[in-house]
Specification:
The chain is an alpha/beta fold and 307 residues long. The protein folds into 2 domains: 215 residues, Spore Coat Polysaccharide Biosynthesis Protein SpsA, Chain A; 54 residues, no CATH class. The chain is built from 10 helices and 11 strands. The strands form 2 sheets. Strands 1, 2, 3, 4, 5, 6, 7, 8 and 9 form a 9-stranded mixed beta sheet that branches. It has a two-stranded parallel ribbon with strand order 10-11. Helix 9 packs parallel to helix 10. The longest helix is centred in the last third of the chain and has 21 residues.
């Protein structure tokens, strides 16, 4: 059995597409599966939408009253999963005919393979097609996926928008690191641990699914969320490097003139603060002809006093 785990935090329209495509393109006869949906405190009607699926047994659901984040919510679902394999699946995906059978064939082709993933239109790492496909709408996606074929390759990293993992390896590693909070870099760390233990990962050559990309974080739609996402990425990168004992601190030294505009200094510090561990700024007070300008600059510095 495969336990398919789907997380959702609002974005109901994408959850609908994902579940509809899952049940239309996944066969219980060819591959026994169960579906576990973790609702991370959605407020857009997701809970009500999922109820008929729960009532008729097509899914099991966990309803958190807050956003538990990607690592913790997947660990919650894995704790009640019954499958020999776990499939972590983003809700902003559209599945295609035979996707699960293709991933299973790939992971069973070599006993040292612990995780596999499909090709897609939107992903970092090794799984994005080049050039990008130009299908428009469900019918063209179906046709494209049916004839899709690309390289089947061993890789050092899989993005967890859709990943099939052996359950015994998941347990051996201990699931996803909840130190990553809302998420990002937990898949990097899991893959690193997997390779440490001598297992392999592979991109399946004939499996293709559509991925809208990063809808739960919302960074495509809102500049403020984009900034928040960048900060989260930077912080979790530091956690990752500490976990694998490869973290090196970075210090930044600056000299600031009293002729500098406060807003310019603020933009400068904002652009770099998340990537460094300390910032040292030299103000030569006695040489400044206009001390009142220094006070404005020091107010900006106060905003970044944590580093």
């Amino acid at each position: 059995m495969v336990s398919i785990i789907i997380l959702c935090y609002n974005q109901l329209s994408y959850t609908k597409q994902c579940l509809e495509s899952l049940f239309a393109n996944t066969s219980q006869i060819r591959s026994e599966f169960e579906v576990i949906v973790v609702n991370n405190g959605s407020t857009d009607g997701t809970k009500e939408y999922l109820k008929p699926y729960e009532d008729d047994g097509r899914i099991r659901a966990i309803h958190n009253d807050y956003n538990a984040g990607f690592p913790k919510a997947n660990n919650q679902a894995a704790a009640i999963a019954k499958g020999e394999y776990l499939c972590l699946l983003n809700n902003d995906t559209i599945l295609t005919e035979g996707w699960l059978e293709k991933l299973l064939r790939c992971i069973r082709s070599d006993h040292t393979i612990a995780a596999v993933g499909p090709w897609t239109n939107h992903s970092s790492g090794h799984q994005r097609t080049d050039p990008a496909p130009n299908y428009r709408g469900p019918a063209e996606l179906k046709s494209f996926a049916a004839r899709f074929s690309d390289e089947e390759k061993y890789v050092d990293f899989l993005v967890f928008f859709c990943v099939l993992i052996r359950r015994d390896v998941w347990d051996e590693i201990g699931g996803l690191s909840e130190k990553m909070g809302r998420g990002t870099w937990e898949d990097n760390l899991f893959c690193y641990r997997l390779l440490e233990k001598g297992y392999k990962m592979k991109v399946c050559g004939d499996a293709y699914i559509h991925h809208y990309g990063s809808k739960s974080f919302g960074q495509n739609d809102d500049p403020k969320k984009l900034k928040e996402f960048a900060s989260l990425m930077a912080e979790n990168q530091k956690i990752f490097l500490r976990e694998v004992d490869r973290y090196e601190t970075v210090g930044l030294s600056m000299i600031c003139s009293d002729s500098e505009k406060p807003e310019t200094l603020r933009r400068s510090l904002e652009s770099v603060a998340q990537w460094v561990d300390s910032i040292n700024i030299v103000f030569n007070y006695k040489d400044y002809p206009k001390p009142w300008r220094v006070k404005k600059l020091l107010k900006v510095v106060e905003e970044f006093k944590n580093i």
